[in-house]
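Continued from yesterday's entry.
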Amino acid sequence: MKLGIMKCDSVNTALVNQHGEYSDMFIDLLSPTSSALTFSIYDIERHQFPQNISECDAYLITGSRHGAYEEHSWIPPLENFIRSIQKQEKIKLLGICFGHQIIAQALGGKVEKSPKGWGLGISTTRFASTISMPWNTNDEKQPLNFIVIHQDQVVQAPINSQVILKNDFCPNHMLSIGRNILTMQGHPEFDKNYLQDLMNLKKDVIPEETILKAIESLKKKTDEAVVRKWIHRFLTQ
């Protein structure tokens, strides 16, 4: 199976030597699930889109410092690409953070900068009361912890979506849309060291109290192993 990683941002140059690019993080996250999984990288900020939607069996839209509602020349063609995938069910689509938001927006949802402020650190989510997930087993329906760093949120999910995970701060943390789209606000590809280094770079824009709470939250375990398993099942079913 070939997964197209649609990279919508680049790691800060001060951190890239130690942590790699965002595409590297996703390859590290997903490679252990299958030796048959291969990757193609598309630099969306530079308008490097697939020439044909069938180039890959599935696509993943990464996070980004940009807002889904901002006016960038690559946003409209990315939204068109998302809508093209939604129209058929053979190709799967994953969205992480910005990817989660731009998919929701492209399919009729609403994204905005939340008045709640920054979501930062390790966030605990719970399952929605009524969910149907063929790629999940019943014994996995416990609270899950995700690394988060965001101000924007999906404040209105697309009409045909299903909320999978939520919490009081982010009610639309994970969405399933139709049979072939899965999105999440959290960052299963990040590790705690990268988040700590990223917060150090953003001390001028993130309130000190928010950063201190986020540092305290790093004592929690994270559940990227569960999400890795979900993604593998989602892609292969």
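--- second protein ---
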Amino acid sequence: MPAIIHCRFIAIPLHLDIEQPPQLEAYLRTKGYAAADEPIQIRSLAGGVSNRTVLVEFADGRAWVLKQALPKLRVAVDWFSDPARIEREAQGLRRLAELAPAGTVTPLVFEDREQHLLAMQAVPQPHENWKTLLLAGEVDLNLVEQFGCLLATIHSRAAERPEILAAEFADRSFFESLRLEPYYEFAAQQVPASASFLRGLIADTRGRSDTLVHGDYSPKNVLVHADRLVLLDHEVIHWGEPAFDLGFSLTHLLSKAHHLSAHREAFAAAAKRYWHVYRESLGHVQWGGSLELRAVHHTLACLLARVAGRSPLEYLEHLERMRQAHAVVSLMAQPPQRVDTLIDALIERMNVFA
């Protein structure tokens, strides 16, 4: 039994579980975030696999989202990560508030390192998750362009401040435990034909130190409010290889092109537009001139990782996962040099499957 702190008539375990409303209510009142007699509403939110996520609404109109990092992720295979990563997310929120365009990041309210949680302002209603819209076949190029511009803005502005941010976000342990090992290394073990490509890419990625990398740049982590994107989930943020963000995000558009055959061409066009807006918005930053080729490599790696890694895309059926793996491995032998060429090659293979 965990030790208990008593708050009036409600017991608070030292190891708080924010998905238990009585515990969270007692915590908020004890900490002074809610008055003793103030009505509050608490509702668990569907979120990712790595956190407990809860919406708290106050009588005065305030609305917060609380996140609490889990030591063991909610997936079918064993996958562990230090819950202290919530501290990295809180710091990411602080810095992104300076780097990202106004209104595209939720303001941090407080963090509690002892309980591995943070609170941020909730995105106002009405809003919708962008992944949900895309899976419904709603491919809005305005949102796609915002997606590209937002990432380019973060990458380019951060690259102008390496003397501060490189040291502040130098620790890549969460990127290792939440991305490189469960995505690339695990996929290499599951698909031996990809091992040389993936392990070479892991080594290259570890050697890059170019800018601030979000590490989880996905439509799942974007809400759409008043036709504007709001970016969430920053626990993997670090100083490293910007091409990872590109490959990770392009993978989501291209996997949906695979899954939703009736909208395949729209998703292909969206993926191309996303890349071109990103590149145009990046400005003079070059990072050695090989960014596009590295983006191609990370797209291939992430496309395979999302069907053969520890966290496969839940909307892809077994046969779709097998076909995606086959298409990707065939391209790894001689990867295209350009993002547009890669997209065309993947769509051609997807159409053959159809």
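Residues 1-10 have pLDDT under 50 and may be disordered. The CA atoms of residues 247 and 299 lie 4 Å apart. Will compare against the first tomorrow.
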